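Amino acid chain
________________
===
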Amino acid sequence: MLKVKNIVKYYGDNCAVNNLSFEVKDGEIFGLLGENGAGKTTTFRIILGLLDSDNGEVTLNGEKIDYSKTDKIGYVTEERSLLTKMTVKEQLIYYGVLKGLTKEEVLNKMDDLLKEFDILDYKNRKIKELSKGNQQKIQFISSVINDPILLILDEPFTGLDPINVAMFKNYIRKLQKSGCSIIFSSHQMEHIEEFCEKMVILVKGKSILEGYIKDIKKDYRKHNIFIKGDINIDEIKKIKGVIEVIKKDDEVMVKIEDYDIVSKVFKKISNCEITKFVVEEATLNEIFISKVGEVK
């Protein structure tokens, strides 16, 4: 388990990370969100031991992270950090040895990973000869070849087409099932919604929203119900708490004051023939924009 407790980091007079705390359990995918400059990268560097925090502590499985622990951490950076004149094989050996593996251990794992990402034929090609998408695959493989117990993913799907995104997602799920703790950062909120159980949103280094995504979305639930079926609109309008009923084509939208009215509407139509009854949820993108906008 990763524990980040009350970390603070200043650059001069600028507070880049302000009393930030969160936990990522084994096999959990955690979302760390924020605009550019919100403090995400500084947080990652503190977790990796590349920066010392001015206050607070970071532990992995109860121990402070030092160079002996970073051998079990993987980090996919937003910007590629590949040595483009090397071949794929040379690159993976280089990064694997830096992570404490022997050359033989890297070679034993390498072909399986290259095959997993459908680039085994490129093993002896130079990095600079590969497409951006295939370079991103090498970046990812370099970060997981050491079988990390903690993986930090910063915009991991940049430059990937939908087929390759699916490939990455499948492998991330494998790591999760193996017990790997994963921190996921992305501006593509649909990926956060798909992967993460918990999240933190940062603004100027400070957490402005945190918790389980399902609970956060419940708190921000929109007050609209969409219904399809043989219903009596006039009867729904009579329900106390129903603001408006709008019929469009074969669907009815019921605007309500708060979520407690949902059960009253459902009870009213429960004996009707219904093919759709959906309470609209706010998207994570809408929540992000709303919360960040509140503090700016």
User: Anything to note?
Assistant: The two ends are 33 Å apart (CA to CA). The chain has two domains: 2-217, 222-280. Residues 2-217 form a domain with the Rossmann fold fold (CATH 3.40.50.300).
